[in-house]
Amino acid sequence: MPTGVDPRGPRFTAWATSAVLVAVLVTGWWPLLAAQAAVFAVGAILGPRFSPWTPVFRAVVAPRLRPTEEREDEAPLRFAQGVGLAFALAGTLGYALGAPVLGMAATALALAAAFLNAAFGFCLGCQVYLLINRLSNKEVGTAR
Amino acid sequence: MTGALVALGALVVAAAAGLLIKARSGRVRAGRDTAGRDAAGPPAEVLAALDPAAAVTLVQFSTTFCAPCRHTRVLLADLAERTPGLAHADIDLTDRPELARRMAVLRTPTTVAVDPAGAEILRVSGVPRRDELLAALRERLPAQASDLR
User: Fold this and answer.
1) The pairing of beta strand B28-30 with beta strand B110-114
2) Interface contact B9, partner A, CB < 8 A
3) A120 and B18 in contact by Cβ < 8 A?
């Protein structure tokens, strides 16, 4: 079953994403955040194999690592990229429409999530999926 | 300048949260009284999943969007196979938010150890630590289980 991706690829992407988001916060240059939103959109809609960071990982990082049999499902990664997309879009609108506080807040949240993934392998977007699901299904069942 | 400080703040908060999560993840915690929460007793899904012949069933709650759930599944299935009196079941919560609420599951994987009546003994969030989990369940399991690692 050749589905799934080398889990170190998304970790590398998370480091790259963290670096981009730090640059956005330091410069406040919203086109960079808009570009990051586009990258998130590709990862969410087409999957991590189509992320622009994947060729970089394959060419530069993967040859230096030992091959691994470990594979990770794409579904959680795509969901997390979708969460990142929502924050990057909110941040871009904030910066571009003259609300830098919104821009910074949304970017900072996205940075915190990306860094948690990069440094600890903890996928916040994946973990809170249940919580989001619960909140969006309030009508399910009666009050208990 | 403000932006740089905000970036630094986000990284510090994320690092602190990461260390906290790492310390808590996989540790055995006291069971919640999920069965006694309402008169209905343990949820029907849990009762249907548990092995009535086993002293303890490890009921794992997973979602589709969850990579550590797969690691947990492999680990617990192996543990149940090697340990007499221990069974393993996996319940997908992806489309069952109501069950997640009743079992007080906030993140996946969460593993809830139940007795044959469905009463909760203990729970673990994240990928369980094999030896710690076995040690916590030892007195519930048949005696020969203590000879195995």
Assistant:
1) unpaired
2) yes
3) yes
- Interface contacts A/B by beta carbons within 8 Å: 101
Q: Among B12, B19, B65, pick the best mutation site for testing chain A contact (most A Cβ within 10 A).
A: B65
pLDDT in tens, A91-109: 999 999 999 999 999 999 9
Its domain, for residue B47, covers 28-147
- Of A22, A26, A137, Cβ closest to residue B97: A137
Do the domain assignments include residue B11?
Answer: no
With left for phi above 0 and alpha for psi between -120 and 50, is residue A71 left, alpha or beta? beta
Q: Which two tokens stand for residue A139?
A: 């009508």
- Give a yes or no: residue B16 inside a domain: no
Mean pLDDT by 10 residues, chain B (149 residues): 93 95 90 68 91 96 83 95 95 88 88 94 94 94 63
Domain count, chain A: 1
Closest CA–CA distance from residue A63 to any residue of chain B (Å): 24
C-beta atoms of A133 and B102 within 8 A = no
Q: Enter the tokens of residue B62.
A: 């997973």
Contact residues, chain A, for B18 at CB < 8 Å = 115-116, 119-120, 122
B60: domain CATH number is: 3.40.30.10
In this prediction, does ipTM exceed 0.90?
no
Those residues whose C-beta lies under 8 Å from the C-beta of residue B141, and which sit 6 or more positions away, are: B55, B56, B83, B84, B85, B86
